[in-house]
């Protein structure tokens, strides 16, 4: 089948694309930025990539001969306060583009919406579902609750909490019930529903075999990890205080923390149906899902992460708009060193940040990360998805990867920390010389004052960093 897939660089779609390719489907992959095509599918002959921004679809051209489409656009972690309007706008534009084609089925991944008092996020999911309904194609909706898998927002947040806090004083919403579902089962539902006419114009709740509270999920997660954890829940933490608690304890953004807290106050219990028999799936239990997720992590084989979504940080534009570093009106710290072992230096560059640290004065980097968190930034806790691999669009602590090419020996990062201006950090090897360049374009007087305030630390941090990139310990 010829399938249109949206959200190609997102957590779900990126994994689903690989599963559909195994089944020999032809994919038309929608991306907002052609510089962010996932490496694992970029050269696949069954994939075609088209540039589509569903908020600005004027120039979009969807092929007429598609058989089906997946709508996997999600704005939960966006920094925008009007994400409900944005989600509806995307859905309406998608519908207008797909209706004139030969598409027979649209498959949409939504959230379980059975509680009487839905969160803002879940209300938006339901509104999108209603918007996508059409007389031109059949809509199949799968409604999932908490998704458990390496790189998923819920998994990484629970991981942060469990591994950092032996004793937890937590909000009362930890007693809310839910039915977690493994990412592998989500993908099997999405792929298995393709082309099944008995699923046309129907919606199904998909969920795991257990009903658990968030507290039980934390404790079972700890059991899988071999950790002893103690949890006390308090009824006094307001949603706003709970959001701040989640924000400072975990690697999530405040916007996502607020959205999650809003959703976690609502019970997410699915309605039974025969969908498991139709698609022939027996969803795995929560502990098995956690264990499998850690197998992927230990193999350094995490395909996608919520942190790599552009909306997880402060980046708003397409990556290509920032690849050219400005030359004028900027402050610069430029250093270069002779490279004695090019392979070693490239591996060090590609391993920078995350658990590996920044190779020099890591304490100062951590302080800068804490300061960023205090002022509402992303901080250092996002880390990186892979310890050894980088591609355009990846999150890297409080940076975003703009360009990464080992063949060209160049890595370019853009700062997503809270700054009175814009900052770039570039590494490239030219004729046996490593060029390390930090560029800051200030905004107003505060930007200039900021640069001079941190200037004394540059000699320590940037000089130590470039030395560690070329000299073996």
UniProtKB/TrEMBL annotation:
UniProt name for this protein: SDR family oxidoreductase
Coiled-coil residues: none
Pfam families to which the protein is assigned, alphabetical: DUF2867, NAD_binding_10
Species of provenance: Winogradskyella pulchriflava
InterPro entries with a match to the protein in the record: DUF2867, NAD(P)-bd_dom, NAD(P)-bd_dom_sf
Record-annotated NAD(P)-binding domain positions: 7-121
Keyword Transmembrane: yes
Entry keywords, A to Z: Membrane, Transmembrane, Transmembrane helix
Segments traversing the membrane: 449-470
Superkingdom: Bacteria
């Amino acid at each position: 089948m010829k399938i249109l897939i949206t959200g190609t660089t997102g957590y779900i779609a990126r994994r689903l694309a690989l599963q559909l390719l195994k089944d020999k489907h032809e994919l038309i992959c929608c991306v907002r930025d052609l510089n962010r095509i996932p490496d694992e599918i970029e050269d696949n002959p069954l994939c075609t990539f088209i540039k589509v921004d569903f908020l600005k679809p004027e120039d979009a051209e969807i092929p007429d001969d598609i058989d089906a489409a997946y709508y996997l656009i999600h704005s939960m972690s966006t920094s925008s306060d009007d994400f409900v309007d944005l989600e509806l706008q995307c859905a309406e534009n998608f519908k207008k583009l797909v209706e004139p084609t030969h598409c027979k089925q649209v498959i949409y991944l939504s959230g379980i919406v059975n509680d009487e008092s839905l969160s803002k996020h879940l209300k938006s999911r339901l509104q999108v579902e209603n918007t996508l309904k059409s007389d031109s194609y059949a809509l199949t909706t799968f409604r999932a609750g908490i998704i458990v898998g390496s790189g998923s927002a819920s998994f990484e947040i629970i991981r942060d909490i469990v591994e950092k806090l032996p004793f937890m004083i937590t909000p009362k919403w930890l007693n809310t019930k839910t039915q977690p579902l493994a990412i592998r089962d989500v993908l099997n539902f999405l792929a298995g529903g393709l082309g099944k006419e008995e699923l046309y114009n129907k919606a199904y709740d998909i969920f795991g075999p257990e009903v658990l509270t968030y507290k039980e999920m934390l404790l079972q997660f700890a059991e899988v990890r071999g950790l002893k954890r103690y949890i006390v829940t308090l009824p006094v933490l307001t949603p706003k205080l709970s959001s701040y608690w989640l924000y400072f304890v975990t690697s999530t953004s405040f916007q996502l923390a607020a959205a999650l807290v809003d959703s976690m106050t609502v019970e997410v219990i699915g309605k039974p149906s025969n969908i498991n028999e139709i698609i022939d799936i027996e969803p795995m239990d929560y502990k098995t899902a956690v264990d499998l997720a850690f197998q992927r992590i230990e193999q350094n084989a995490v395909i996608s992460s919520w942190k790599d979504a552009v909306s997880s940080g402060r980046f708003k534009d397409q990556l290509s708009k920032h690849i050219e570093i400005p030359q004028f009106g900027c402050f610069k710290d430029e250093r270069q060193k002779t490279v004695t072992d090019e392979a070693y230096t490239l591996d060090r560059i590609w391993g920078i940040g995350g658990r590996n640290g920044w190779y020099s004065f890591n304490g100062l980097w951590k302080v800068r990360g804490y300061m960023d968190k205090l002022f509402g930034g992303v901080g250092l806790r996002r880390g990186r998805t892979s310890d050894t691999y980088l591609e355009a669009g990846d999150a890297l602590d409080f940076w975003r990867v703009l360009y990464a090419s080992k063949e060209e020996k160049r890595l370019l990062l853009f700062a997503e920390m809270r700054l009175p201006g814009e900052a770039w950090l570039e590494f490239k090897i030219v004729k046996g010389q490593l060029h390390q360049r930090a560029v800051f374009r200030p905004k107003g007087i505060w930007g200039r004052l900021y640069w001079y305030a941190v200037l004394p630390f540059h000699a320590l941090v940037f000089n130590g960093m470039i030395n560690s990139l070329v000299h073996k310990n």
